[in-house]
Amino acid sequence: MRIDILTILPALLQGPFSDSIMKRAQEKGLVEINLHNIRDYSTSKHKNVDDYQYGGGAGMVMSIEPIAILIEKLKAERDYDEIIYMTPDGEVLDQRMSNNLSLGENIIILCGHYKGVDERVREFYITKEISIGSYVLSGGELAAAVLVDSIVRLLPGVLNDETSALTDSFQDDLLSPPVYTRPPEFNGMKVPDILLTGDFKKIDLWREAKALERTKLRRPDLLED
Ligand code: ADE
In this predicted structure, what is the pLDDT of residue 162? Predict the structure, then answer.
């Protein structure tokens, strides 16, 4: 899979993809993540990427021109499954959306800033608008990092069997059951006896029951449909 991220702050996105699972996924050639600095495509003398909004009002708006030039260049090189805009008024990200996006070949992700992006970018180029929750971030970069992480870990070969994404919370509309490791007792706090029995059938049933109990308690909305 290839992911092209369009941003005015590429440095903000270098960290999240240069460690651990995201780093290994790129090294293994399972995903190619390209950061593009929108400023490099500005045609103005001072490399501006924003301007005052028509009609007045506080806050700058990201200009269409450098974004359009960059998107047109990428689209001429390959076909894209989605051109995504990270914005608090987008559709709220969930596991199903990440699963669907992980099946694509190429995606573009545009990170917004300031008051947002000129509406014409959204009308003419964007195919999907995604929010990571009902709160406002300073820009779309951290939201893009969350989205990319949730997609890349689903790509075949990225996780090994032990960490398989199939057992994640939400994958079957249930939260994960509690987990424990050694020691079996710490300051009087004991690991549930069942987990020490070696009876994997019973352990599976216990885990299912705990997952259901936790979901009912914390996220009953997941059980509604
Ligand atoms: N940009 C600013 N806030 C955001 C959010 N909650 N989700 C996605 N992009 C954003």
Answer: 58
